[in-house]
Write a structure and sequence with these properties.
Blueprint (H helix, E strand, L loop, with lengths): L28 H5 L5 E5 L5 E8 L2 E8 L5 E3 L10 E4 L4 E6 L8 E6 L6 E2 L8 E5 L7 E6 L8 E6 L5 E3 L7 E6 L5 E8 L3 E6 L8 E7 L4 E6 L6 E5 L7 E6 L4 E8 L5 E7 L4 E8 L4 E5 L2 H13 L4 E7 L5 E8 L2 E9 L4 E7 L12 E7 L5 E7 L12 E5 L15 H8 L3 E5 L9 H5 L8 H15 L3 E11 L1 H12 L6 E5 L5 H5 L10 H7 L7 H6 L13 E6 L7 H14 L3 E6 L9 H19 L1
Parallel strand pairs: 30-31, 30-32, 32-33, 33-34, 34-35
Antiparallel strand pairs: 1-2, 2-3, 3-4, 5-6, 6-7, 7-8, 9-10, 10-11, 11-12, 13-14, 14-15, 15-16, 17-18, 18-19, 19-20, 21-22, 22-23, 24-25, 25-26, 26-27, 28-29, 29-31
């Protein structure tokens, strides 16, 4: 799948395990949250080496290994912060990014595969860097985006990896949110925000021409160019204009006229696509289903490769994480809901699969718990998809009167998926059933489902969570006196809203980097979110016109309704949910005499990533839940 442009995207959430046995047989907490043994394998363009990340001094660092040999070389020595992401830049050099203390101002570095010539390319204070185009066919160049000139917007630069020279390709006028190149690495497309809530596509035939607007739509409508056709004249685009679910279409970039609908699913949005640079053709498109990926192939050979892999790895979800330039040597990840999974090296011509490494060999698949896909109906008739993980020894048929941890996801414009989740497995191992749900506003289910969540924080979105809890109680699975709620980011807001607006439903709650005050949250967003502020006003609320509503559904203003004890955790450097969100909630709770524990980590941001901080957080969570649910 084409994923290099998304390699800086961050994720936060996790999963569940089981045992009702004694403490002697209990799986150590550290097993779930310590750094993986080896992860993020990528093959070099010539298929000679692979890189991976592994712990060094309790931080994730880069290693390189020649395929066929057992010896590895560590090429970075980071001790303050994990490396966030990496990519090959030619056969002899690797790029990587890291931030400082969780501030999310990622800086770009490069290092040779023997560990020499470590170089910082974008060592600018309070500047965030991301990859626009890795220019896979040009080893010495990449195109990056930086908010160096203006913290609110990102300009595109061509970076010479040999000299470090940065060439500004275009100056962002202030409203452009994304840039796109063609197969020759030429900057041809810009995606902009106009009038606050309208999106606009700008296009040019050549780099010496000015960008011209070709389509303007409301932000609720999606038109995204995915990749140019091989001749750089047409584009494959994802769009929901005139339909509820996004479709893959062939489109004329000069007019945004649809020429042909190539694929559309009647239940889910398209979530990914594959394009072969070797064959110069689209190969596959995929949707995230309730349990499995739904794939439609345009290339019979690629479909045949997947069938061969799945035959050799039955019972596992198989994905191609990296491949050589000739597409013959591929790195494969195979995992499911009960294991982080393993990496394999696959030789396409020989149909030979060789195991490379287990991500976390201390996690035993047979000791983990199954994640059951479930559905329930909301009070206004929506079908809500979700997942229920039960402690070991329980099934959907015999699970009765269990303590439950309700775990709404962050975002909220995201979704939970089926697969291994260390948080969920940890909680299930301690005897808790774990309920996750894709409430309205979650992505992947079409435009209408997402829009039903607009300006519904604490309202219909929260009702979907409440309805899931009541479904569990009605089914007899949940002990109504032993239900907790835990979430991070938006999930943290939903946690606070749950104990505030349905105070008799939950016995306790854990809020992790969550929003407590919708008004202050909207006033402390990162500077590069400012161009999106008008859209966020429509999606969350506008302090100028929706002040009454936002106060009504901000938990911090209604702590007098809270009965359940809380545990709150916060990163001091969080750029998304400012520390003041947690500070003001803790202060208000203490004034009311509500029991609250508060953990702040000074070297973290939006979630805890340093291993020792994760251990502290989950140890405290375990004690807190044991005290109030058992």
């Amino acid at each position: 799948m084409k994923n290099l442009r998304n390699m800086l995207a961050a994720g936060l959430f996790m999963a569940g395990i089981c045992f009702t046995a004694s403490a002697q047989t209990q799986i150590p907490l550290e097993n779930f949250f310590k750094n993986p043994e080896k992860i993020n394998y990528q093959v070099s363009p010539d298929g000679t080496y692979f890189s991976f990340m592994a712990p060094y001094e309790n931080r994730m660092n880069l290693f390189v290994q020649k395929i066929g040999l057992d010896t590895t070389i560590r090429i970075t020595s980071e001790t303050e912060r994990d490396i966030a992401a990496s990519m090959w830049a030619g056969n002899n050099r690797i790029l990587f990014v890291k931030d400082t203390g969780g501030d999310e101002n990622y800086q770009l570095y490069g290092v040779n595969i023997d560990g020499s010539d470590l170089k910082s390319y974008t060592n600018f204070p309070k500047v965030r860097t991301h990859i626009i185009d890795p220019l896979e066919k040009i080893d010495s160049l990449v195109i990056i985006g930086m908010n160096k000139r203006n913290p609110q917007v990102f300009d595109p630069y061509r970076l010479n990896l040999n000299t470090g020279e940065l060439t500004l390709l275009a100056e962002n006028p202030g409203n452009i949110q994304g840039w796109m190149t063609d197969h020759d690495g030429k900057l041809r497309v810009a995606h902009a925000i106009v009038d606050g809530v309208n999106k606009q596509i700008l296009y040019r035939e050549t780099e010496d021409q000015p960008f011209q607007p070709v389509l303007t739509t409301n932000f609720k409508e999606t038109v995204g160019f995915a990749v140019f056709t091989p001749d750089n004249k047409m584009v494959y685009a994802l769009t929901n204009i005139g339909r509820d679910k996004t479709a893959l279409v062939l489109m004329d970039p000069k007019t945004c006229e649809e020429k042909e609908v190539l694929y559309m699913n009647d239940k889910y949005d398209i979530s990914d696509f594959g394009y072969s640079e070797k064959k110069n053709r689209l190969t596959v498109v995929a949707c995230e289903g309730h349990k499995d990926m739904i794939r439609h192939y345009f290339d019979k050979e690629e479909e045949g490769i997947r069938k061969k892999l799945e035959a050799q790895l039955p019972g596992y979800n198989v994905s191609i994480t990296s491949q050589s330039r000739d597409e013959n040597i591929r790195l494969i990840h195979a995992g499911n809901d009960r294991t982080y999974g393993s990496y394999y090296l696959y030789n396409v011509k020989e149909n030979k699969l060789t195991k490379v490494a287990d991500i976390a060999p201390w996690i035993k698949e047979e000791e983990m718990c199954a994640m059951n896909p479930i559905t329930y109906t909301s009070r206004d008739g929506l079908t809500i998809e979700g997942y229920l993980t039960l402690p070991k020894g329980y099934t959907m048929e015999n699970a009765k009167n269990l303590p439950v941890v309700v775990n709404p996801h962050g975002g909220p414009w995201a979704r939970d998926t089926w697969g291994y989740n260390p948080e969920v497995q940890f909680l299930a191992s301690r005897g808790y059933a774990v309920l996750q749900m894709n409430f309205r506003a979650s992505t992947g289910y079409g435009r209408k489902f997402t829009e039903l969540g607009y300006k519904q924080w604490g309202q219909a979105m929260q009702n979907d969570i409440t309805d899931g809890v009541e479904w569990l109680i009605k089914e007899g699975i949940a002990d109504p006196k032993r239900v907790a709620i835990y979430g991070a980011s938006y999930g943290g807001y939903a946690t606070l809203a749950g104990v505030t607006f349905t105070p008799d439903l939950y016995a306790c709650a854990v809020d992790y980097v969550g929003v407590s005050n919708l008004l202050s949250f909207m006033n402390t967003i990162p500077p590069y979110w400012k161009p999106l502020l008008d859209m966020m006003h429509e999606m969350v609320g506008d302090p100028a016109t929706d002040k009454e509503m936002m106060e009504k559904y901000s938990p911090v203003f209604h702590v007098d309704q809270i009965k359940a004890p809380l545990f709150i955790a916060q990163g001091a450097n969080d750029p998304r949910v400012n520390k003041a969100e947690s500070d003001q909630m803790v202060e208000a709770l203490k004034k009311r005499g509500v029991e609250v524990e508060y953990m702040v980590k000074e070297n973290e941001g939006h979630g805890f990533y340093n291993e020792e901080n994760k251990f502290d957080f989950y140890r405290a969570m375990e004690k807190f839940l044991d005290k109030h649910l058992k």
